[in-house]
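Postdoc handover notes: sequence design on the structure in folder B. Input tokens:
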């Protein structure tokens, strides 16, 4: 059996198939992102009989029903959606949704004298030589005879015959040829993705999550459009609450559903710690509900594939959609989501910039939802999720082959009588003393400020409620929340003046601390031994020059919580490398204590 068929059709036929729901638009590349000028160019190409590329459809498999009959699968439009939406907007007069989920018409005007298209504007509406909206010409009730008479009366320099020929050419756009590549339903998701990438020239790469969303959105029988909108709207509202009113005003069908009631809380919720995309929602739901990690398997299950017999069965589709719907509602549940955010904050994650690994966050939420579904008590869930999140960051567990690791880990958590048992087994194998003393110490030798290891150090500081370096009133957490900057224990300018000229030298993360701006300015470009001597003097004389610390115990405590060695009092540039080694060890020990205390 061939992987695909190539056929020719017409614009008119394709639009008709979409109206009749023979070909489904799953809104993969949603919403409509083309600029009106690009719609105009598409119409111009069709008018001039230029090719506009292939449309790619993917046949949904025929599913075997319980009574033995076969349900005919739809064809899903996976490439060409923007072109088709543009044609529906310009020719059929359909409204499209913009990126703010506002409905709007794209009106394309046509100038018969010059035979050119333009996006409608106020000047065109005042000019009788223009056809202001070509959708009127393509309307089934359009009278070409009456239009020609009226137009020629208003524009006597245009002859009836010439206008008739031009209009006929315009109307022939509907009969323009389109190439349609029909991909066979037997193709696996990897092959479909590869074909799409090789054919597509618009620079848009579709992920497996996109294909899963397409499978969900075209299944009306099991409320696929409702499930898809719940995922899509939730992920957009949490990033931009302003779109909520547009969704409410433009999708009355969805806003009357229970699913809408389950997500509307998010418009009033403000968090930048975890803002899941639709891809993240799918991955989390699939992981905890289906105990699998590969999204390609979700696409197969939503199509009804029996992995043993390789048949496509309706009961598998039904079960998969039921599980998917339940999982999505648990993901967007207000109590679940807010409890998960509280767990993140309790682990020192108060800002999105403290965690670069979206995979670690996604698995942590999948684990939370799995343990909730299995009925574990809140204390055990909090402990397990915090511990696993930090361990996954420490060993960068999901940095490579994340789907395989998701699959491996979720199955073992599901089979464990106690989640801590599995966590302990990983801890014993991955977090030995050798790991901390060698591997982790080596990881701290970097100048990358966004390093997960420096972020772990900051999480430990937040967890311990530490004060900023040389401060007794401002905490590290407050500086991070207010978008404060990190500063250098050995000032950057000081190091540059002493032959440490490369950023890899002076920007070592072991040279970073969170400090008040006023403290940093007071330190300026002084050697550590100089500004620490000023601190000792201010404690003795009670004359403040750097910060507010006014006694020796406070200073020692502050240095300890910021992992600054006591030897700093006598350090100059010649001691910089020695300082880095000493401070890395202190940072490592702090992070190790933080992990063990979770």
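Designed sequence:
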């Amino acid at each position: 059996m061939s992987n695909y068929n190539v056929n020719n059709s017409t614009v008119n036929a394709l639009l008709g198939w979409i109206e009749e729901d023979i070909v489904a638009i799953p809104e993969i590349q949603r919403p409509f992102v083309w600029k009106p000028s690009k719609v105009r160019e598409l119409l111009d190409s069709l008018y001039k009989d230029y090719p506009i590329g292939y449309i790619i459809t993917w046949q949904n498999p025929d599913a075997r029903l319980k009574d033995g009959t076969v349900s005919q699968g739809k064809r899903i439009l996976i490439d060409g959606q923007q072109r088709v939406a543009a044609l529906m907007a310009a020719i059929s007069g359909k409204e499209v949704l913009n990126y703010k989920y506002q409905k709007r018409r794209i009106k394309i005007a046509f100038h018969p004298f010059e035979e050119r298209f333009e996006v409608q504007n106020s000047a065109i509406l005042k000019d009788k030589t223009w056809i202001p909206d070509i959708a009127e010409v393509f309307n089934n009730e359009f009278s070409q005879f009456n239009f020609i008479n009226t137009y020629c009366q208003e524009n006597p320099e245009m002859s009836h015959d010439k206008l008739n020929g031009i209009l006929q050419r315009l109307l022939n756009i509907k009969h323009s040829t389109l190439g349609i590549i029909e991909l066979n339903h037997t193709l696996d998701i990897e092959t479909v993705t590869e074909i799409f990438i090789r054919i597509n020239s618009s620079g848009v790469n579709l992920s497996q999550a996109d294909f899963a969303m397409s499978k969900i959105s075209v299944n009306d029988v099991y409320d696929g459009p409702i499930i898809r909108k719940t995922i899509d709207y939730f992920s957009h509202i949490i990033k931009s609450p302003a779109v909520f009113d547009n969704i409410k005003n433009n999708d009355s069908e969805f806003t009357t559903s229970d699913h809408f009631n389950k997500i509307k809380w998010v418009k009033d919720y403000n968090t930048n710690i975890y803002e899941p995309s639709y891809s993240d929602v799918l991955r989390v739901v699939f992981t905890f509900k289906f105990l699998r990690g590969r999204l390609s398997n979700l696409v197969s299950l939503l199509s009804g594939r029996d992995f043993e017999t390789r048949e496509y069965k309706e009961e598998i589709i039904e079960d998969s959609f039921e599980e998917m719907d339940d999982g999505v509602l648990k993901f967007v549940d207000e109590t679940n989501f807010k409890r998960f955010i509280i767990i993140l904050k309790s682990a020192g994650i108060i800002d999105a910039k403290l965690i670069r690994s979206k995979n670690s966050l996604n698995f942590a939420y999948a684990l939370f939802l799995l343990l909730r579904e299995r009925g574990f008590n809140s204390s055990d869930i909090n402990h397990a999720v915090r511990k696993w999140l930090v361990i996954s960051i420490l060993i960068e567990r999901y940095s490579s082959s994340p789907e395989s690791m998701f699959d491996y880990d979720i199955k073992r958590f599901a089979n464990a009588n106690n989640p801590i048992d599995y966590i302990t087994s990983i801890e014993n194998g991955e977090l030995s003393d050798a790991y901390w003393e060698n591997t982790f110490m080596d990881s701290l030798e970097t100048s990358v400020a966004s390093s997960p290891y420096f972020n772990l150090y900051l999480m430990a500081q937040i967890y311990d409620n530490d004060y900023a370096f040389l401060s007794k009133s401002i905490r590290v957490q407050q500086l991070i929340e207010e978008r404060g900057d990190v500063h250098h224990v050995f000032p950057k300018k000081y190091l540059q003046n002493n032959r440490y000229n490369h950023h890899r030298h002076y920007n070592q993360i072991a040279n970073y601390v969170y400090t008040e701006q006023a403290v940093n300015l007071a330190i300026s470009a002084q050697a550590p031994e100089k500004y620490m001597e000023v601190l000792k003097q201010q404690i003795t004389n009670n004359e403040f020059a750097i910060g507010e610390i006014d006694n020796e115990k406070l200073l020692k405590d502050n240095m300890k919580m910021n992992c600054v060695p006591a030897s700093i009092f006598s350090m100059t540039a010649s001691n910089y490398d020695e300082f880095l080694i000493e401070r890395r060890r202190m940072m490592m020990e702090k992070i190790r204590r933080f992990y063990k205390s979770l």
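Context for whoever picks this up: Residues 226-414 form one domain. Don't rerun without checking with the PI first.
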